[in-house]
Amino acid sequence: xxxxxxxxxxxxxxxxxxxxxxxxxxxxxxxxxxxxxxxxxxxxxxxxxxxxxxxxxxxxxxxxxxxxxxxxxxxxxxxxxxxxxxxxxxxxxxxxxxxxxxxxxxxxxxxxxxxxxxxxxxxxxxxxxxxxxxxxxxxxxxxxxxxxxxxxxxxxxxxxxxxxxxxxxxxxxxxxxxxxxxxxxxxxxxxxxxxxxxxxxxxxxxxxxxxxxxxxxxxxxxxxxxxxxxxxxxxxxxxxxxx
Length: 243
Description:
The chain is of the alpha/beta class. The chain has eight helices and seven strands; from the N terminus they run ααβαβαββαβααβαβ. The model has no long low-confidence stretch (mean pLDDT 91).
């Protein structure tokens, strides 16, 4: 997980090997398919795709067959995550989402995968500034993040229950379904995410939805159905281009 000037306690949390660093496979497939379509097949030249916050490399490994011919480089701040990522993808480097904290020249990347990262950041504004720096003009940003306004969160809030994905502590879960602490600091609705990314200097191409692997099995058909209305979906998938 990359960081933006995270306080020591938060850095220790993300360096802990017990902290989850993998995301859902369905989200990875949907994101990779969208990027492959955006880059074009066959691509005239191999693209540099930077997976920022690559975690254990699972998402990049899932995307690799759909992005054949392109070079995927995983980036993470956590040394433990990078150690695990090296077992799945050939190219990984350490970097941070601070000013010039990513080890890439300005305008050198054709696309950035930014999957389930922004909700963990202290300073998401600086993160998008740094992503914009390394992208070439017209380069693609493929961002995914949990949806604060997911269909079940709306019902939970009406019942006075803390929404899924939200967290009030790094030590334990309080007042919401689930048992796993993953360090979410910020959550977005579809409208807020679109507005935020546009304000950072990107043209938002499309916002779609993806299901969440943690939804109980009996409710998964409903969760997949909610993807047809991104504002209700579990996961938000945003495709934007650098202006």
